[in-house]
Amino acid sequence: MTATEAAEEVLTHLRGWLAATADPVLAAALLDAGCTLVRHAHVMRRHLAESDADELPDPSWNILAFTASAQPPRPWTEVLPSLLGAYPPSHPDHLPGGESLIDDYLIPYTSGGRLGPLIHQASGLAVAGDEVVGGILVVDRPGEGPWISDIWRSPTPDRPGVGAALLMWSVKHLARSGQQTLGLAVTDSNSRARTVYSRAGFIVETTAWTVSVPTLS
Ligand SMILES: CC(C)(COP(=O)(O)OP(=O)(O)OC[C@H]1O[C@@H](n2cnc3c(N)ncnc32)[C@H](O)[C@@H]1OP(=O)(O)O)[C@@H](O)C(=O)NCCC(=O)NCCS
Question: Which residue's alpha carbon is nearest to atom 44 within ligand 1?
């Protein structure tokens, strides 16, 4: 079956559904056939070495770990501004919802209700004075192991490097507890994040296109 024929089958049988493929030719055929791109993303993974356990903390940032009961070291209301700032409408993974993101996003993703239980020792907030300036959430994702469910930093005032520091802080704590890998998914057009991940040693493992199959008009 050619990619064009496969795309026609998808349009015949999966109208109104989301479809995902790791085949770039099929992805192009689906888009040509009228599907809408929802996400073009990469799974990236980094192997953790014993030497990662000795990673020195970046002295520029004060990073506080989540508690053993997956509670943030600062109240969620103090965390939210940095998250909202990191995902404005212009961001490819914009997080809409404002204050409701605490109940609809932050709490479900840290309480284990979505991707997996939080690895609290490797999840933290970067704090400058009284201000939360960034965060990293690492979960134990079934079938994947340690997985970054989110990482962000406040864009104002511009604090370059806090994301990379959070990343290496998590790498250190995961390596110390004997974990072997750390994975994540990143949207193709999120060039900033991809730059940071590549620099930190993450390698693209798989790429996938998720499309929305049109309903009958
Ligand atoms: C991902 C993130 C946490 C990294 O934070 P950080 O380590 O402080 O790094 P910065 O954001 O300052 O940018 C990293 C690099 O990307 C570069 N960069 C900026 N825009 C870029 C672009 N459009 N294309 C490529 N690189 C870009 C920056 O110049 C910087 O490089 P430099 O250190 O040589 O100056 C931060 O960019 C962020 O919060 N992004 C929004 C939320 C997000 O996308 N999270 C990841 C979800 S998978």
Answer: 193
| % of the chain beyond a pLDDT of 90 | 90
**How many angstroms separate the alpha carbon of residue 55 from the centre of ligand 1?**
21
Q: Distance between CA 170 and CA 140 in Å, rounded?
A: 13
Determine the residue type at 212: S
CA of 191 to the centre of ligand 1 (A): 7
Tell me which DSSP letter residue 113 carries.
S
Q: Please write the tens of the pLDDT for every residue from 51-62.
A: 999 988 888 899
Domain count for the chain: 2
Q: Are the C-beta atoms of 62 and 128 separated by less than 8 Å?
A: yes
Name residues whose C-beta falls within 8 Å of residue 53's C-beta, 6 or more positions apart in sequence. 172, 175, 176
Within-domain flag for 217: no
Model pLDDT, residue 136: 98
**Residue 158 confidence (pLDDT):** 81
Asked if the structure places residue 24 within a domain, the reply is yes
pLDDT for 217 beyond 70: no
